[in-house]
Amino acid sequence: MITFDITIDGQTVVAQRGQTLLAAATAAGLDLPHLCGSTRVGYPAVGSCRTCLVEVEGLTDLMPACRHPATPGLSVRTDTQRTERVRRLAIELLGAEMSTEARARHPDSPFMALAERAGADPARFGARTEARASDTSHPAMIFDPEACIRCGKCRAGCRDVQVNGVIALAGRGDAIHISFDSGLAMGESQCASCGECAQVCPTGALIPKALQEAGGRAAITTSGETVCPFCSVGCRV
Ligand code: FES
């Protein structure tokens, strides 16, 4: 394993060849803001939400930490006025993808937690989504389209990690939306009920029914390896 030093906010971090900045920072115990990115093994870098943008020494543009490779001697800053302003803006624009009601339905989601941490107002730009009914056709899961920010993390989990290939992003441009087996109701699709999508969804758009009925993520008061009762397989919550 080839390792080398990088610098994040003035702190020396040992990174491995092949790691992204986000993965290296997380392995070193740093908590870099991110939503669509994941540090779990096998997760592809989605790179859609832009909440992880950092300043890389020598580059003019901000770079997404979830996609930018850690290379020897790299120096980045996550805590400048510029990164904090852009991060707030990215979160506030994503917030406009959700309806007012959906934001209220999922107050304890990772998205809302990140907004609070960044000092962002998810309601700043209102809500540009139309009213759409939740898909409750699946026996264990709910899809709340008004809460979906179309980040694509559920697709990455379904397609690349669990290799189920049920969830896709359909449509083009502003009409892009989550689709189950090319347009079926979730309960009619070949969903294997693995729970991966609900586990990684940052907004609560995909959530186990039992968890939603129990009061959302706030209902979970402990964390660790467990087979929880909220979906059919069990996962780390
Ligand atoms: Fe990096 Fe979303 S976490 S772009």
List low-pLDDT spans. Answer: none
Shape descriptor reads globular
Radius of gyration: 18 Å
Instruction: Write the element-wise H/E pattern from the N-terminal end onward.
Output: EEHEEEHHHEHEEHEHEE
**Which quaternary structure do these chains form?**
single chain
Instruction: Enumerate how many helices there are, as a single number.
Output: 7
From the N-terminal CA to the C-terminal CA, the straight-line distance is 30 Å
Mean pLDDT: 90
Helix content: 10-25%
Would you give the CATH topology of the largest domain? Alpha-Beta Plaits
Describe it.
It is a single chain. With 237 residues, the protein is of the alpha+beta class. It folds into two domains: 3-79, Roll (Ubiquitin-like (UB roll)); 131-236, Alpha-Beta Plaits (2-Layer Sandwich), CATH 3.30.70.20. Helices cover 24% and strands 16% of the residues. The protein is built from seven helices and eleven strands. A hairpin with a 6-residue loop joins strand 7 (167-170) and strand 8 (177-180). Helix 2 packs antiparallel against helix 4 (110-118). The protein is globular. The protein starts with a strand and ends with a strand. The structure holds FE2/S2 (inorganic) cluster. FE2/S2 (inorganic) cluster (FES) binds next to loops.
Key descriptive features of the protein:
two-stranded antiparallel ribbon, about 15% strand, Ubiquitin-like (UB roll), 2 domains, globular, Alpha-Beta Plaits, alpha+beta, binds FE2/S2 (inorganic) cluster
Map the helices and strands.
Layout: E1 3-8, E2 11-16, H1 21-27, E3 53-56, E4 63-64, E5 75-77, H2 81-95, H3 100-105, H4 110-118, E6 141-143, H5 153-161, E7 167-170, E8 177-180, H6 196-200, E9 206-208, H7 209-214, E10 225-226, E11 235-236
Parallel strand pairs: 1-5
Antiparallel strand pairs: 1-2, 3-4, 3-5, 6-9, 7-8, 10-11
Helix pairs in contact: 2-4
